[in-house]
């Protein structure tokens, strides 16, 4: 059964200020709607009615259409000819495809980073790993989810930053966006589990050791395994919530 998501209870964004630039309104609409889709406020396959969006985000049709068009390009929304928009469906097949692509690309980027990375790259990895490890000091559930996710992303981005390829990093970001809804299911299952966080800390520490030792083959194998570990967890959650 799908989880309940009360759109009237969910926090609403603040109303845009009078005279706010149209471009900023479009960016805000995109960010708010994307976050709500990722967090399940709007369920897979649900129709996105313009009247409801206008009320929730206190925005006009133009910025909302801009946001919807951008989310169509990111495969989070589907445009229905002459009939509006729906949230893109989710499937185990898509889950496996996206995560396999991410794991293969991440492994390649780590190998390149090991070959090309300098001392500053190594120092940044250590700094990001240290910051991620301090998230246990945050106690609010919402804050814990947001902070851990952001710091986790920063840690993984630091590992691949030494690859020196802007184009490959852009491709990585695109895959990350496509995985966002699936990742959120995994995050909610992981971030609030001490056992899961302890296992993640061990994996991250082992990754850092292998990368700083420039053990490319070992690091690549570890990265692939690390990137794929959420898949069975997400699959189980999707099946339990009838999202398959």
The parts where pLDDT drops under 50 for at least 5 residues are 1-23
Helix content: 55-70%
The fraction of residues assigned to DSSP E strands is: under 5%
Q: Structural class given helices, strands, pairing?
A: mainly alpha
- Quote the CATH topology of the largest domain: Four Helix Bundle (Hemerythrin (Met), subunit A)
Order of helices and strands: HHHEEHHHHHHH
Any idea what the shape is?
globular
Query: Which architecture of the largest domain per CATH?
Result: Up-down Bundle
* Number of β-strand runs: 2
What's the CATH C level of the largest domain? Mainly Alpha
Count of domain modules: 2
CATH superfamily of the largest domain: GntR ligand-binding domain-like
Helix and strand layout, with pairings?
Layout: H1 22-38, H2 50-57, H3 61-73, E1 77-80, E2 84-87, H4 92-116, H5 119-133, H6 141-160, H7 166-190, H8 194-212, H9 216-228, H10 230-240
Antiparallel strand pairs: 1-2
């Amino acid at each position: 059964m799908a989880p309940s998501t009360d759109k009237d209870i969910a926090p609403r964004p603040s109303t845009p200020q009078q005279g706010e630039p149209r471009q900023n309104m479009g960016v805000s609409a995109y960010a708010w709607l994307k976050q709500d889709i990722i967090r399940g406020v709007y369920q897979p396959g649900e129709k996105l009615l313009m009247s409801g969006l206008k009320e929730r985000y206190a925005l006009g049709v133009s910025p909302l259409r801009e946001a919807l068009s951008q989310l169509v390009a990111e495969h989070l929304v589907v445009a229905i000819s002459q009939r509006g928009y729906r949230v893109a469906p989710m499937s185990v097949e898509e889950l496996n495809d996206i995560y396999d692509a991410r794991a293969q690309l991440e492994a390649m980027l780590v190998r390149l980073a090991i070959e090309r990375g300098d001392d500053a790259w190594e120092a940044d990895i250590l700094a990001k790993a240290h910051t991620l490890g301090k998230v246990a000091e945050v106690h609010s559930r919402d804050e814990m989810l947001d902070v851990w996710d952001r710091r986790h992303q920063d840690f993984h981005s630091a590992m691949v930053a030494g690859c020196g390829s802007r184009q490959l990093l852009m491709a990585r970001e695109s895959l990350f966006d496509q995985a966002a809804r699936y990742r959120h299911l995994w995050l909610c299952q992981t971030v609030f589990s001490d056992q899961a966080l302890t296992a993640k800390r061990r994996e991250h520490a082992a990754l850092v050791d292998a990368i700083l030792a420039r053990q490319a083959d070992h690091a690549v194998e570890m990265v692939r395994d690390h990137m794929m570990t959420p898949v069975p967890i997400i699959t189980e959650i999707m099946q339990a919530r009838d999202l398959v």
